[in-house]
Amino acid sequence: MSKPDSTKRQPVTGTGRFISGVVEGFYGRPWTMEQRTELFKRYVKWGLNTYLYAPKDDYKHRMYWRDLYAAEEAEQLTSLISAAKQHDVEFVYAISPGLDITFSNPKEVAALKRKLDQVKEFGCRSFSLLFDDIETEMCPADKQAFSSFAHAQVAITNEVYMHLGEPEVFLFCPTDYCAVFCTPSVTQSSYLNTVGEKLLPGIDVLWTGPKVVSHKISVESIEEVSSVLKRAPVIWDNIHANDYDPQRLFLGPYKDRPTDLIPKLKGVLTNPNCEFYPNFVAVHTLATWCKAPAEGTPRDVEMGDEEQDPCYSPQKALNLALTDWLEEHEWVVVTLIHGMSVLPGPCHPRLKKESSEEEPMQTDMGESPYIPGPGENPLYTAEPLTLDDLKLLSDLFYLPYEHGTTARTMLQELDWLKNQSQAAAAETDKVVFIFICKRRSFFYMLSSYSCFLFFQTAEWCSRAQQFDNMCEAVVQMFNRLSNAPNRSILYDLYNYICDIKSGVGLARAYVKTLGGHSQPSAQLLNDDPEPWGFRGGLSGEFQRMLPGHGNRDLFRHPPMTAVYCIRPYCPEDKVKMLIISGLVFSRLKFRSDVMDLSAGEISPSPLCGLILEDDLGLCGYALALTDAKPAAAKIQVIQSKMAVSGSVFEEFPSVIALEMLPRVTDPSPAKRMIGQLLSSIRSSGSRGAFCELRQSNRRMLDFYSKLGSFKLVQMDGLPQDILVMATSL
Predict the structure, then answer these.
(1) Per the omega criterion (within 30 degrees of 0), is the bond before 184 cis?
(2) Torsion of CA 188, 192, 197, 203, to 10 degrees
(3) Which whole number is the average pLDDT over 271-290?
């Protein structure tokens, strides 16, 4: 743990100390009193000084701002304010009356004063009035009393400020609290100019930067707004806020704010993640940023460092925060030895009594510990969480406008693997010779592109393995984090890490399918997948229906809708069908269907051959014989074996062969082709149709099962790996 020099704790700008710390200003469940007290203890270590109490969903802070605190609530706030003082933290109580206050009504102003007077009695000496996220239209009574919305807000703010005795710290949050809200611009905003001219000079103004969640905040932008406000603003920074998206968490460093800003500001307060414990990184790196100019030693600018800040390195600040996070909390697994907790790993080479509230629930040590006997399963031993795990966690959940290095690499690699696999599939037109060895029933491909293994290059296979290794690291991080004894941190993180583990798992399986190392997943040709196989929720469905969905992804790869063409089969399709069969069946380690429709030895019946094409070419087929028995007899003579017995042809005279390349992930084209084939077969007078499938072809088994009309047919004498599914017409 780095110990801040108390003589360098607070940069000074103008009069008073530089305001630095946290604003609890998010929407959602407020933090507990215990968590806030823990935050104050961190302040002492990190050199921060201010806490702004403004939880949007504390109903007496915002919705029922007029109501006084009850005795129990008053006791809790009094204790919290006292705890802040004990740790030299300035506790700023904020109230947000803007939802329904009538500015021109003296009773409303009196109610506001009465509420703040009560909080003052609790020991609070610093206050804030917030008018953010409210409607800008004044009621008729206020329109008669004030010339503008800004005049109304400034008048009541000045009056309350004077009533409270002009506190040293008094913050005002305007309705136009960022540049994008200012009409027509910051310098020409009548609202902001009124605030700057009329607000008493002892009142500081909160500002979020160019946007609500600002990617970057420049010195020039702060100088511009300062000239309008006639004072240096206090930044309310939403860079780590996540209350607007329940799927996002931000564990990256405080960045894209040059330390040259510090002399231009009155302070910086970060409004971080709703979850308390993951904010260790956000608050720690802010503290490092605030101290950077006072440390006195410029750093060497690193290659690729976008900020070019001589005093502050976001990456070094992040590494320091993650190291301290690992050391200060019980991340590592506890092993019980005779009533003592042994914390393994270089960070915790010590024994300690089982007294910490953050340790896991202990077992009853009255009995001897269980020791597995010979041949029994060994006890499960979880590995301790490592610093690399926390770095990976931060990379996966970095910042609103930027993924971490590992996350970017994984997205780039997946994109490359997918595109190169599709490009390789297009090379099938360049195959110059295909020889079919019927005796072994394998496909031998002699190509001018002999470096391809199933049309995947050695580079593709190497990068696929690297991608798989990165996916495995995510899984192992999840496992170690899930077994960490500090359950409070885990519970804050669990939904996020479970979600990313699921997404990475699907991507991993898809790449293995492309590389021929596993069978195509049933999830890829299924309109009824397991819930964990897709991202659900009504909000997500609304977004996917809107134009431009995905065009703001941090990895710019706009979603594409595949367009398929279904056309009749022609004899020229035989070669390409053989290639599809070879690619698919070689992956599954078995030959084509016994009827050899896909091998081209027997042509499909009239109107019973369909070909599926996409932008890359032929990608699937559906073929049928309306009378399969004569063809079966012919093939039996050629190959001296067959799976289906003659009795099947009485009830199901027709046979179907269907196959899709793995890149066809939409089941709709396959369902349409099957529907057309069955219609043609029915028109021929056939009573039913069957198909032969190998048990390892889980994709097609799942597809036929989900159709509902195909059922398994029990037959004697079938090879062990062959299944027959059939449907009556």
Answers:
(1) yes
(2) -150
(3) 96
End-to-end CA distance of the chain: 75
The tokens 């007496």 sit on which residue? 60
Helix axes 149-163, 106-121, angle to 10 degrees: 40
Of the listed 133, 260, 468, 627, which one is catalytic? 133
User: pLDDT digits over 195-232, tens only?
Assistant: 999 999 999 999 999 999 999 999 999 999 999 999 99
Q: What is the pLDDT of residue 528?
A: 61
State the DSSP string of 344-393: -STT--EEE-TT-TTSPPPP-TTSPPP---TTSPPPP-PPPP-HHHHHHH
Dihedral (C-alpha) 171, 182, 149, 95: value to the nearest 10 degrees?
-30
CA separation for the pair 171, 156 (Å, rounded): 13
The pLDDT tens digits of the residues spanning 77-131 come to 999 999 999 999 999 999 999 999 999 999 999 999 999 999 999 999 999 999 9
Task: Answer whether 248's CB lies under 8 Å from 277's CB.
Answer: no
Overall average pLDDT of the 234-259 stretch: 94
CA 292, CA 11: separation in Å to the nearest integer? 9
User: H or E stretch including 115?
Assistant: helix 106-121
Token pair 């004899």 is found at: 571
Alpha helices in 458-537 (DSSP H): 458-482, 487-514
Q: How far apart are CA 281 and CA 317, in angstroms?
A: 9
* Block residue for tokens 């770095």: 391
Strand pairing of 234-237 and 267-270? parallel
Concatenated DSSP letters of 73-85: HHHHHHHHHHHHH
Q: Is 689 helix (H, G, I), strand (E, B) or coil?
A: strand
Q: Which residues contact 304 (CB under 8 A, 6 or more apart)?
A: none
DSSP per residue over 601-632, as a string? SSPPPTT-EEEEEETTEEEEEEEEESS-HHHH
Contact between residue 486 and residue 356 where contact means Cβ atoms under 8 Å apart: no
pTM: 0.73
Query: How many whole angstroms separate alpha carbon 464 and alpha carbon 518?
Result: 13
Q: Is 133 a catalytic residue?
A: yes
User: Residue 75's Cα: distance from chain center in Å?
Assistant: 39
- Please give the average per-residue pLDDT across 431-458, as a whole number: 40
